[in-house]
What does this fold into?
Amino acid sequence: MHRILLLCLAFALLSTPAFAVNPDEVLDDPVLEERAREISSKLRCLVCQNQSIDGSDAALAKDLRVLVRDRLKEGDTDAQIFDYVVARYGEFVLLQPKVGSHTLILWFMPIVVLLFGIGIFVVKSRNAKVTKTASLSDKENEMIANALREDD
It folds into this structure.
């Protein structure tokens, strides 16, 4: 039982995203490689969608990793690389999109919907309160009964 558990743990450790980068992609310069890994961890795999290109085995992710490393070799800054990739693939490629005027609706819509829901709940709960009607006194009940008898 312990061997099976250790074997499962070993497989789990070997399947980490760090092994998605192929050895032929790794740059000789460790500083550039570290920058490439940092940039790759912030770019979305367009095939996997919720995974970075650094941890994806998809062919497109490999192409993007190679593209990032090529741009680093050419001397581009991190910002230039992000701008280049965004211009080519759109802002969806960023795992953490920038907050801008065109994305404000997406960022703040959950808050607006929540406040709207709370408002509806408050209004409905106020309207749902049952108003108590005052009950008639014994004297008033007697007067009504007398009036009904007189009409008959």
